[in-house]
Amino acid sequence: MLLMDTCNLFYMAFILFIIIVTIVISDFIFDRVLDYLNSKYWSNVLPEELKGIYDAEKYMKSQNYEKTNHRFSLITSSFSFVLMLGMLLFGGFAFVDRIARSLSGNNILIALLFFGIIGFAFDLISLPFQIYSQFVIEEKFGFNKTTYKTFIFDKIKTYLLAAIIGGGLFALIIFIYENTGEYFWIITWAVITAFAIFINMFYSTLIVPLFNKQKPLEEGALKNAINEFSVKVGFKLSNIYVIDGSKRSAKANAYFSGLGAKKRIVLYDTLIQNHTVEELVAVLAHEIGHYKKKHTLQGLLMGIVQSGLLLYILSLFIGNPVLSEALGAKQGSFHMGITAFGMLYGPFSLVLGLFMNALSRHNEYQADRFAAEKYNAKSLKDALIKLSVDNLSNLRPHPVYVKFHYSHPPLLQRLKALDKV
Question: Among 138, 287, 325, 390, which one carries the catalytic annotation?
Answer without folding.
Answer: 287
